[in-house]
Amino acid sequence: MLFPFYWNHPYSWRTNLRCVLPRPLCLWVNKGEDCEEAGANHVWYKQDDVYSACYHCRAVREGRLWQNQ
Asked: b or e along 38-56 (b: 16 or more beta carbons within 10 Å of the residue's beta carbon)?
């Protein structure tokens, strides 16, 4: 499944590239540093029962942030 490509999001192309590459090659395409520092919004997913993580960058925060989108 490909995520929508947001032209105004600086790290969206990396997420889409990781989705289409074979798993071993996918590890070479790292996530961005921080969406907010780059002037973009986070796109959250449920990492586990406690934390939410961003699809596009390395941000991990406590809470169910993925429910608020």
From this structure: eebebbbeeeeeeebbbbb
pLDDT at 6 over 70: no
- Residue that is written with structure tokens 């889409």 in the block: 16
The whole model's pTM is what? Answer: 0.74
Q: Where are the alpha helices (DSSP H) in 1-69?
A: 12-20, 23-26
Does 2 reside within a domain?
Answer: no
What is the torsion angle, in degrees rounded to the nearest 10, for the CA atoms of residue 14, residue 41, residue 38 and residue 23?
-20
Flag whether 53 is in a domain.
yes
